[in-house]
Task: inverse folding
């Protein structure tokens, strides 16, 4: 515990943007076939350092087969509300769930160049205390650390719906399930909230049998993946409204509320529209009467392709779907980054008018058909996937793996891990940094990135930008 | 034995504890700033302060009323004062050791500031801190006026209770409100980051001291 609030906690997004720039990034390492333990890589992102773009430290776990995916901090700027009663937590631990094993690691990064395992929560404890499995997204909020899960109970995770559970933010003990009334929510993926307005939004991927052994084409074509977003009374722990985006909008994944809590809107990415193979972004917003609405504000077209260039899964379609697998909103709420993992493009939209986004920048890299190389000449396997933005909104980092079994279906063969950096122009625009290229250990893929001191998908702010 | 705690000193304690509670961010003034910023209206700041004051005041009443009623039992005056002091000091020791926050507080929605303020003042012992001071005042008044009939005593102590709770809450809102207004108007939110100190240990220690003084003055 500190005697002062952690210096990386900021009252508002604007204050956070003015803080010191990141010098280190944490990137998850995934052994796709489970033959080696998953790990955490510490990457030097300080352009003045001799190690710029190099992994300066790695920590491998004692178990195999965890499948690391998303992760988060034990504490963030949300602690600066007197309502939480935890203003003096340290941003010190990374909470890393294994979505295949249901094991959760608490990693101490007090010395960020020498991460250590602080605690391991075994899968049996998660099952016994929550009835959930396959933990995924981490956010720190009013009642502690919230962990979303992708599976319910039972061996295949279909015994009861998946949901969210809460971890104590100091002892990392599992406190129990979050939901009191889940309404229509029966699948889960991401969640986030607006703390002063006291609402939460959650999204849907699919149930474990629909993703663990690869995408199930029949389920996708019959629109059986998630296509609804749920709005919750955050502290009341109940669903107050469910918006069905339409059954063709398959896999509503990342939820990105505006960082300034005075704003009433946010975004949600949809992987694929099965009626036309488009990728889509919905803008959702809270109306004056407190209810919510959502509208499709971005569509990204599929690109025609020769069947010979396509993996078996896509041969029949004669086109590459964009596959919007991750989106991220800059801290100034100005740019929304949209990863098109199928076509191999990173889009930047100016969302100053959230109802009317405009494409303001684009980078081609990787892709099922295009296979665009990095400007340094090296091959970029897979496509742009997990994206993270610096607090000052000037640098964008991303990796290339989606999920072990899905990688293999869309991009057969081992294509290697990657992590790249792009710079944002004064008036938008996006350019890859030729000098930033991370060499990963052999046999690993790279997943989510977290930036030292917080980033654009971890911290929730309790106070508006002035 | 009351020479150490004069009436004036006790009233000063009522005011000082109010100022102290007010400036502690944990008692809620940043929420008033947040309200004003969220609604983009300065009136929201005052409305939030009002809600915080009502909650704090109500907590004082809930804690002090039972003690006020007990003061009618004149013969037990000393045990009551010692008991009150022990209770306050005991809570201080408990808070020092556990350093935990009751989790139910984080389930109160930001729209219910008065309820939040009430519960925070109860569980963190802000209201309890006033017990030894209040009992000391009751006893000090007795010295001035000599022993009275129980009914008179109760009526007088009830008035005293109202005065203590009002004065304390007013002091709390003046200090917290001034800070909230200054941060909203001039200082900006970075002030919150720079000046928020972990007062938990200080807070718990002050409970122990106030409780201890209460016991000492009763002996």
Result:
């Amino acid at each position: 515990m500190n005697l002062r609030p952690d210096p990386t906690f900021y009252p508002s997004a604007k204050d956070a943007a003015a803080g010191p720039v990141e010098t280190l990034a944490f990137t998850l390492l995934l052994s796709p076939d489970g033959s080696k333990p998953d790990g955490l890589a510490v990457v030097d992102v300080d352009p003045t350092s001799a190690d710029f773009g190099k992994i300066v430290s790695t920590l491998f776990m004692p178990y195999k087969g965890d499948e690391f995916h998303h992760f988060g901090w034990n504490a963030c700027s949300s602690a600066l509300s007197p309502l939480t009663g935890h203003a003096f937590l340290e941003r010190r631990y990374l909470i890393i769930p294994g979505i295949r094993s249901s094991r959760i690691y608490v990693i101490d990064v007090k010395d960020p160049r020498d991460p250590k395992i602080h605690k391991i929560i075994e899968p049996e404890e998660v099952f016994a205390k929550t009835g959930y499995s396959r933990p995924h997204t981490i956010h720190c909020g009013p009642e502690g650390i919230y962990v979303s899960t992708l599976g319910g109970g039972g061996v295949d995770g279909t015994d009861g719906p998946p949901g969210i559970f809460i971890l104590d933010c100091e002892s990392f003990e599992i406190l129990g399930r979050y939901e009191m009334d889940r309404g229509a929510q029966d699948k889960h993926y991401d969640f986030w909230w607006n703390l002063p307005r006291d609402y939460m939004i959650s999204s849907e991927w699919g149930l474990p049998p629909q993703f663990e052994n690869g995408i199930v084409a029949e389920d996708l074509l019959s629109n059986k993946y998630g296509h609804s977003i749920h709005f919750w009374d955050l502290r009341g722990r109940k669903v107050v409204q469910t918006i069905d985006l339409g059954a063709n909008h398959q896999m509503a994944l990342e939820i990105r509320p505006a960082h300034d809590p005075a704003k009433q809107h946010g975004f949600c990415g949809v992987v694929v529209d099965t009626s036309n193979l488009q990728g889509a972004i919905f803008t959702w917003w809270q109306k004056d009467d407190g209810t919510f609405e959502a509208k499709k504000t971005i569509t990204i077209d599929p690109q025609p392709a020769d069947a010979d260039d396509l993996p078996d899964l896509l041969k029949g379609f004669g086109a590459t779907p964009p596959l919007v697998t991750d989106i991220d909103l800059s801290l100034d709420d100005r740019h929304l980054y949209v990863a098109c993992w199928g076509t191999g493009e990173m889009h930047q939209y100016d969302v100053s008018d959230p109802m009317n986004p405009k494409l303001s920048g684009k980078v081609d890299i990787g892709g099922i058909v295009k296979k665009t190389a990095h400007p340094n000449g090296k091959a970029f396997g897979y496509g742009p996937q997990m994206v993270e933005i610096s607090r000052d909104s000037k640098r964008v980092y991303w990796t290339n793996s989606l999920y072990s079994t899905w990688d293999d279906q869309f991009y057969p063969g081992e294509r290697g891990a990657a992590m790249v950096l792009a710079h944002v122009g004064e008036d938008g625009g996006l350019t890859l940094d030729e000098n930033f290229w991370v060499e990963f250990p052999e046999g690993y893929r790279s997943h989510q990135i977290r930036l030292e001191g917080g980033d654009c998908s971890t911290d929730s702010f309790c106070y508006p930008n002035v | 034995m009351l020479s150490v705690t004069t009436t004036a000193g006790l009233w000063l304690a009522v005011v000082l504890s109010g100022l102290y509670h007010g400036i502690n961010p944990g008692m809620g003034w940043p929420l008033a700033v947040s309200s004003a910023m969220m609604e983009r209206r300065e009136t929201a700041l005052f409305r939030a302060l009002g809600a915080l004051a009502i909650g704090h005041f109500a907590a004082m009443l809930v804690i002090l009323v039972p003690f006020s009623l007990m003061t009618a039992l004149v013969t037990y005056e000393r045990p009551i004062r010692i008991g009150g002091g022990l209770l306050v000091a005991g809570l201080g020791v408990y808070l020092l050791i556990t350093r935990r926050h009751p989790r139910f507080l984080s389930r109160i929605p930001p729209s219910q500031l008065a309820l939040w303020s009430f519960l925070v003042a109860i569980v963190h012992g802000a209201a309890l801190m006033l017990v030894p001071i209040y009992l000391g005042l009751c006893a000090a008044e007795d010295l001035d006026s000599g022993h009275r009939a129980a009914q008179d005593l109760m009526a007088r102590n009830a008035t005293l209770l109202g005065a203590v709770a009002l004065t304390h809450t007013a002091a709390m809102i003046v200090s917290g409100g001034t800070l909230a207004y200054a941060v909203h108007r001039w200082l900006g939110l970075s002030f919150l980051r720079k000046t928020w100190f972990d007062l938990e240990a200080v807070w718990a220690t002050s409970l122990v001291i106030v409780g201890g003084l209460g016991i000492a003055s009763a002996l």
Remarks:
- Chain A has a mean pLDDT of 97.
- Chain A touches chain B through 39 residues (CB under 8 Å).
